[in-house]
Automatic annotation (TrEMBL):
SUPFAM superfamilies: Bacterial luciferase-like. Residues 16-216 form the Luciferase-like domain. This is LLM class flavin-dependent oxidoreductase. InterPro entries: Lucif-like_OxRdtase_MSMEG_2516, Luciferase-like_dom, Luciferase-like_sf, SsuD_RutA_monooxygenase. The keyword Oxidoreductase applies. Pfam families: Bac_luciferase. PANTHER family: ALKANESULFONATE MONOOXYGENASE, ALKANESULFONATE MONOOXYGENASE-RELATED. Keywords: Flavoprotein, FMN, Monooxygenase, Oxidoreductase.
Length: 287
């Protein structure tokens, strides 16, 4: 199969003002990013609200949840919000779903939802995906006045890193983002992709594969250590793929190699590095 063309997403969570958030969306669009991706935590902007605001001031920029922890929502609520944002973005939504990152357990008291075992949460995610697909498709042809712009439903992105999540994502997702420990090495990344390829079988080539960059370059802010839970300097020293370093041309070559060897064509980056990655986006986006 011919390699997929590159596209890039910016992961952003906060802004000091509404205007700053709108300007961030504009800037991402102007720089050639495909998608503005919003995480779902109690310490950041509520993703559907933030993404609706971003979509309303841009023309081509796609918007995506990155990712909704399915255990914290009823499936019907996800369907409702999905239909609304797909409409308000004029069909630019990517619905990112996950089983809940480990740190999300601390938010249970605020969400007023149970945080079950990994197996329970994976089942909740599987159920949510099935219901979203069925109900959004039904809304397209049924009596509902709220109809999806993207048919049969917006692309579904699933964050996965373990074998059970790979099994679910390989069966159901349009896009898989590799949810790996930032300390994962290049060899470890290749091993995970090989595992996913084995699980997905013939469906592997139909899935868009994404990887999230935590940082770009070697001049990294101190607070990134707390955000990542590991010293970025250690990652740079070990060559971990979570931090992309080198000249723009060297960074582009690294991403091309990963795309050609592993199939990773959708690159997400921490929004604070929007400008640092921009020269690479200019070289690679759409190629």
């Amino acid at each position: 199969m011919h390699p997929r063309t590159f596209r890039f997403g910016a992961v952003a969570a906060l802004a000091p003002t509404a205007r700053a958030w709108q300007e961030l969306a504009h800037r991402a669009e102007d720089l050639g990013y495909s998608t503005l991706l919003a995480p779902d935590t109690m310490a950041t902007l509520e993703p559907f609200t933030a993404l609706t605001a971003a979509a309303s001031v841009t023309d081509t920029l796609r918007v995506g949840t990155f990712v909704l922890p399915a255990p914290f929502y009823t499936a019907s609520e996800i369907v409702w919000r999905t239909l609304a944002l797909d409409l308000l973005s004029a069909g630019r939504l990517e619905l990112g779903l996950g089983a809940g990152r480990p740190a999300a357990e601390t938010e249970v008291v605020h969400r007023e939802r149970p945080f079950g075992t990994p197996a329970e949460r994976i089942k909740q995610l599987a159920d949510a995906i099935h219901i979203v697909k069925a109900e959004v498709a039904a809304a397209a042809t049924g009596r509902s006045l709220l109809k999806p712009v993207q048919r049969p439903h917006p692309p579904i992105l699933v964050a996965a890193g373990g074998h059970r999540m790979f099994q679910l994502a390989a069966a159901e997702a349009d896009i898989i983002t590799l949810g790996l420990d930032p300390r994962t090495t290049e060899e470890g990344l290749a091993e995970k992709v090989a595992e996913l390829r084995d699980v997905a079988g013939s469906r592997f080539d139909t899935i868009e594969l994404s990887f999230n960059l935590s940082g770009v370059g070697t001049d990294l802010p101190d607070f990134l250590r707390h955000q990542m839970g590991v010293d970025p300097a250690e990652l740079i020293k070990s060559g971990a793929p979570a931090i992309l370093t080198g000249t723009p041309q060297e960074m582009a070559d690294t991403l091309r190699r990963r795309r050609d060897e592993l199939g990773i064509s959708y690159i997400a980056v921490n929004g604070m590095f929007l400008e640092q990655l921009a020269p690479v986006v200019e070289m690679l986006a759409g190629t």
